[in-house]
């Protein structure tokens, strides 16, 4: 199959591209390549074709090639950056996704975010929370389902732009994945995105680690090999799932707080004020993906953290 991956030089795109290339698919990477990281070398070594460009100009490659499947990962990914430059955030995430979805001749598989739920996920006042945040009755242990309200008072510019992208993707028959915290090899994390990698690299380099808030924020973490397996299943069954939205994360069994991770790796952080719109707790109800695709995570949080730690120990010179 001819497969186009926008943002394919990034963390998720590069992992998917290499997996698909090894299975014999012809992979086209569309990326502005501004990161300049090691992923580009690996992609070229796996015979992936790399096309440099911005989403504004995505029509060029769509007109030159006929694709059997398109994965759309190119994005502005930081909540903080969306406050600093909401116009650029909109240009990339909303307008860029429209350019792709409206010109592609086939439905696309889109990487969205749990931030589309906005402040609705902050269900319990801070003064009532104890050692670890928890959900109110309906969602405890199940997590947030796809039908959870997106009618929030506050989303962040990032959440709004990604939600706008979702609407265009579905309008043209595509599939939406609202991802929680993904991690694994080829993730060059920083303080705004990829927090597990960021924390582990900071420890390896002896750099101080700052936690914003109290560190009790909870996420359901998902190792990248499980994400790649999901995306390959979606590619195989695209006709069956057109127009669907999936909440994708590690689920309740793979929840962890910042403090729990720091305790595991024996690090004492510095603390700073809460950042705007930080969700206090989020974990996904992943039952829909299991029902429609037979998918669920295979890599536990313990195994995943060990795997990424070993990879970073071997590759931290790249950071």
Task: Write up this protein.
- The protein has one domain: NAD(P)-binding Rossmann-like Domain (Rossmann fold, 3-Layer(aba) Sandwich), CATH 3.40.50.
- It is built from 12 helices and 13 strands.
- It has helices at 11-22, 39-45, 59-64, 79-84, 86-103, 157-171, 195-204, 224-236, 238-241, 258-264, 287-293, 301-315, and strands at residues 2-6, 26-31, 49-52, 69-72, 108-113, 175-179, 181-183, 210-212, 218-223, 245-248, 255-257, 270-272, 281-282.
- The strands form 3 sheets. Strands 3-2-1-4-5-6-10 form a 7-stranded parallel sheet, sandwiched between helices. Strands 7, 9, 11 and 13 form a 4-stranded mixed sheet that branches.
- Helix 6 links the parallel strand 5 (108-113) and strand 6.
- The chain is globular.
- It starts with a strand and ends with a helix.
- The model is unreliable at 124-137 (pLDDT under 50).
Main sheet, how many strands, which sense, barrel?
7 strands, parallel
Going across the biggest sheet, name each strand in turn: 3-2-1-4-5-6-10
CATH class term:
Alpha Beta
Strand content: 15-25%
Q: How many individual domains?
A: 1
Helix count from the secondary structure assignment: 12
The coarse silhouette is: globular
Q: How many runs of DSSP E, i.e. beta strands?
A: 13
Query: What CATH architecture do you see?
Result: 3-Layer(aba) Sandwich
Structural class: alpha/beta
Order of helices and strands: EHEHEHEHHEHEEHEEHHEEHEEHH
Distance from N terminus to C terminus (CA atoms, Å) equals 33 Å
Poorly predicted parts: 124-137
Rg for CA atoms = 19 Å
